[in-house]
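Ticket #4471: structure output looks truncated?

Reporter: J.K.
Steps to reproduce: submitted the chain below (402 residues) through the standard prediction queue, then opened the result file.
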Amino acid sequence: MHSLPAPPFAFQVEHERGRARAGTFATPHGAVRTPAFMAVGTLATVKGLDPDDLHAMGAQMILANAYHLHLRPGDALVRRLGGLHRFMAWDGPILTDSGGFQVFSLEGLRTIDEDGVSFRSHIDGSARRFTAESVMAIERGLGADVIMQFDHVPPGQSAEPVARDAMERSLRWLARCRAEFERLRAEDAPAPTPEQALFPIVQGGIHAGLRRESARAIVGMGGWHGYGVGGLSVGEAKADMYGVLDVVDGELPRDRPRYLMGVGYPEDLVEGVRRGVDLFDCVAPTRMGRNGAALTQDGRINLRNARWREDPGPLDADCTCATCRRFTRAYLRHLVTADEMLGLRLISLHNVHFLVALMARARATIADGTFDAWSAAWLERYLAGEAARGAVAKPVTPHPKR
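Returned output as attached by the reporter:
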């Protein structure tokens, strides 16, 4: 068993409402009030936004990607320039994904073996190789507060044998990640962020038995500051995703944060909080913004639609973001249809703010005891709007705790 090192990492659950909880996760670059949405800055930038935008909207922690930064501009360069915090002028907490999802999505460009993954860069075709050890060195150099293990991510609806193979390999790689992580922490000084937290990742596809097995093996290793839940929102049905969260909630310790990786649609955030999730991330809000789609309490809207041509209202009447305080739907539609980059920036800002504010509201209602009623009413309104546009199915009823 591994013992937890001393702070700066700590997690305190302050309020609970069923399985939903509100807490504080302390990191070397500040505290994160949970549940929280982490804006994705894949290439050391949240697309279209700068750190001042993020601070102004209440964003607390952001995510960057080891795979993409290794390829461009290079993790060694980022380290020489002082690490990600200095490089991108963000003084809050950062989490780096290991790049496992990106590497395994390179179908036809990668080869897997027990030691690691050989692949070709999607940028220039150059030959590269990731192992548990090399990824830990990359993430050490980038200097995020929280770093993720290198894992094997199978397709969302993989059959049980395929999911088992990936899950078991992820556990073997986790042991190697931890050994290298601890070696680097002891020997690699100075580093941009001397104290980092390594999060393991629960895998197992949509198979409840595999998810339990993965979670129990990880917990049995002891000494983790938090836990990732990976391999979801990759093509499986929402009911399957929510079912996995029910299983995992019953297996992971409640005194550590749980991070649901790559999940960021509004209904999934609320359903995740209902099932004990604390941290979320997703590229969806900025990707939608670049395509002229905006989040509202009544579902997503497409600003390219002619119905908004003369609309004098804000994107969302209750939103307090800089976009909604100043600009109309009609103006934003004009910018989008004219291919003006300001429109894409303003909608992206709104979408990220929408998810950050949604999690702030969830925290507040967990604290005051109204979360159950608030979440039910919020989902009913949002999903009714989505269903009217044919976007999503009806909400999934939470499963009993397992």
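Triage note (M.O.): checked the attachment and the full token line is present. Residues 160-187 form the longest helix (28 residues).
Status: closed, working as intended.
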